[in-house]
Design brief:
A three-stranded antiparallel beta sheet has the order 1-2-3, with no helix packed on it. It has 14 helices and three strands. The longest helix has 20 residues. By secondary structure, it is mostly helical.
Length: 304
Amino acid sequence: MQAHIEQYLQYLAGERRLSPHTLSAYQRDLALLSAHAQQQAIEQLKQWREFHIRQLVAALHNKGMSGRSLQRLLSAWRQFFAWLGRQHLVDSNPVAAVRAPKSARKLPKTLDVDQMSRLLSIDDDSWLARRDHAMFELFYSSGLRLSELAQLDLTAIDLREGLVRVTGKSGKVRVLPVGKTAIAVLQQWLRVRSENLPEGSVQQALFINQKGQRLGVRAIQLRLKHYSLKQGMDEPVHPHMLRHAFASHMLESSGDLRAVQELLGHASISTTQIYTHLDFQHLASVYDAAHPRAHKRARNDHAE
């Protein structure tokens, strides 16, 4: 089975042009299938049955894997067996009818406008501070994913037009607006960016480290954590919280779910709809704090 998994991963890399990060995720997901096949003495691909898949899902669920994670696993396995079917290596797809157990959908953690203002109030003219400030402003201004920010080259950003061109999941390209505050901070960064580049360097990465190399996703995570603590935030801030803040603040101001979907690069609007719940939470808290009937109701409920 492992040989067929390797062939499938080559297909994903070559024909579907998936990113190395996505390929690694597929490899991990399919490794679970391979291990289960060994445990169950499944020697031939055509021996796979639906109950084998249900058995594996149940085992993973009992170990604490969430319904959402299981749903992602099943999707990867379903696609793998579909590919095997196209190669005439299996007669049916054992994953086709298997569904993951439902789990409560957790709302993403986000930051309100005041918290974002505190985080981005960076009063430091050092090379590192200017780079980090530019990264965080662009994160929040355009709602980027961490991987999208790390992949940005100098040619991806047009400060004159206020636009940034990003490559998202499955290689989908979208062009996003950049706010005037982010433009100003990026201009400051670009004026000092070359200070740490070796002579003759042709490094095209927008954000680089002190050795003149492209800044990786882990380094970006650590820099944001550093600044969130330095700025007195209640808890360390993860990069995706800036994307969540962008989405929820845009939705609060505009109410245009479709526009937010396009800006975030979500394939399905159902993914974007979770921010309507965040918006409702915000409105409910404002109501409870401001409406006189809300105060009266709370006191009466407490008395009962």
